[in-house]
Each structure stands twice: as C-alpha cells, then as structure tokens.
Task: structure prediction
Amino acid sequence: MSEGDPIEYRMLQETVRRFVKEKLAPHEAKIDEDDEVDLQLIDGLKRQAIDLGVFAYNLPAQFGGPGLSVQEQCIIDEELGRSSMPLAEALGHLPGSLRFVSNAQRPWLLEPLLRAEKTVAYALTEPSAGSDLSAIHTSAVRGEGGWVLSGTKHFISAAEHADFLIVLVATDKSAPLKARFTTLVVERGSPGFKVLRRFRKMGWRGHPLSELAFEDCFVPDSHVLGEVGQGFDIMMATINNDRLMVACRCVGIAQALYDLVLPHLRQRKAFGKALGDHQAMQFMLADCDVEIDAARLLNQKAARLADAGHPDFRIAASRAKLFASEMGGRVADRVMQMFGGSGYMADLPVERFYRDVRAFRIGEGTSEMQRLQIARHALSKG
Result:
C-alpha cells in the first residue's frame, strides 16, 4: 500500500495482518509438518473472522458477505499470502458461483456457509481436462426429478471434508461449449459420491487435494445452481476475480519473504562486513523490491478496473496473475539464496513459501494460458 491510500484501507490491512500474525502464524509450522489441519481449529478461527466482519470477504452484501470492493478484497488476499493455504481458509474465500443461488437455496446452502457451520468445495478439473473445458467428460443425464451424475474429478481442493461440492458437468455434449455445462450441488454422503484418494504433493501441506468419483449419483433439480446450460457462464463470471486473488496471494508471499530476509542481510556477517553490504546481495534485493512493487501495481490496476465494471478487467487480471505468480517464484528463489543453507532448512518458513508459491503458476489458469489470453488481446486491438 502507498501513503495516499484511504485510511479505511490501512485499517483493514492492519486488522487482517494482526489476525494473520496472532491467530494463524502460530499454527503454520505444525500443520506443514503434519500435513494435516485440525478442523476444530479452523472452525474456531472462522468464528473469530466472523466476529471481525471479514468472513466470506469476497461475497457482496446481497449474498450475506461484507460487501467489500475488489480493492479491499485484494488487501485481504495479500495479507493472507503471508500465511499457509489451509489457514487462509479461516477467512472464508467462498466460491464466487454462490452468487447464482436462488432464494430457495439460500436457507440450506448459502446461510450455513456464511455462519461457518458448513463447508463447500468446487470441482472443475478432471484427469483429462484442466484448462481445456471441451475435454470435460463428467456428465449428468436427466432422471425423474433431477440428474444422474457420473464421472471423475481430481486435484479438488478441500473436498475431503466439504459438506457441499459444486460440480461442473456436461448436460448436453452436442451443444456449443457455452451451453454444454450445468453446475450441480452435490451434498456429502450422497449415494454414488465418494472420495477416492488424497494426492501427495510438493506444497500446500494441510490443504488436501483429492480425486472424486460419481457413480450414478442422483442430484435433485433443487440442487441445480443457476440454470441448466448456464455452467460455463457461472464459471467464467468469477474466474477473473479468482485469478486476481491468486496474484494478490503471491505478492503477499513475496512481501513476507522480503520482510524476512532484510534483518538477515543487516545482521549476518560475511568476510568482515554485513551480508547486505555485498553487491551480489544488493542486486538480488533490488530485483525483489522492484518486482514486488510492479506486481502490486498490476493487482491494484486490475482491482480498480473490476470495481469500475470495466471490460479490460479480464485482461488486467490475466496480466496480474501471470506476473505475480512468476514473480513470487523468483523472489522465493532469491531469498533462499540470500539465506544460504539456513533458507533450505525447515526451521525457517522460506522453504515452505518456496514450495507453496510454485503451485500458483498452475492453478486458476496456467502461465501459458494467461500468455495466450494476453497475446490474443494484443493482436485483436487496432
């Protein structure tokens, strides 16, 4: 943030930063070591976030959220980047597709989520379909009073214990891509739905990614989110916000690493002088400084465009996500180098950040997908 930012932005940043430091940080090392998170711990943290008025911070007021601007959401997302993935869930970044709930669905779906009594996960990716939606095979056919769902989803975040699963399925494979899909809400314990396995992974420890199977799983018509055939639009309506969220988390990670290495450079001695007095260290530090600031400015521009409802928000979010996710990896690598051997050890959070930030170049649209979007936008102009 800059000196000219509104006072309410600074107050929001200080509130969330204090919450991260005092409530989340003490649990990070144990969760990372165990690769498990205590669900009762997360439930308690969610209730504290509710008391602070920042739970479900990405939802508009008409859907029970605090009604924050996208710029304010970015402040929260950057601060959450200082913590780990499972603990960041405490502030309840709920699926944006919940904006499509009907009035009839609010009491059993939306309201328990807002009270942190229930949890939800979103299932899009499949073994043969990541960014390529045309390759989605999970489908649903009409049954009496609903839909019969069959297929497999994988790499699904936080699905192991979710009470609701929002699933993108093909309901008309012969239709054009934009009319082919429907979004269904599957409840935990539904016959035919099961979690097959939890993946072992490089980072994001304590934040499970799972493979799910649906075998003739019946979903009543009351559990269609939005309209039949509207699934593509529902997904696309919030994907740019999610990309910006990732970009802000990456800036938060990079800033946390930067703040961590500064005292080390001032205090550690090498060859008779402070480590920070060596030109090699100064060059790496300067590159971190510039790139963090550049990424934050890209995020802020995208957020302003989003708040203004400007059509260029889409491409601004792609720029922000591409640059910030790759920047985060470069900063993590430099900071580890500046710490030397101690940065590679698990005693410091440097190696955890190093592992965690790598995934953001893949999730919510790979760097390659962002480059395609940006290049096509540039070629279409003029």
In short: The CA atoms of residues 53 and 66 lie 7 Å apart. The mean pLDDT is 95. The chain has three domains: 7-114, 120-232, 238-380. The radius of gyration is 21 Å.
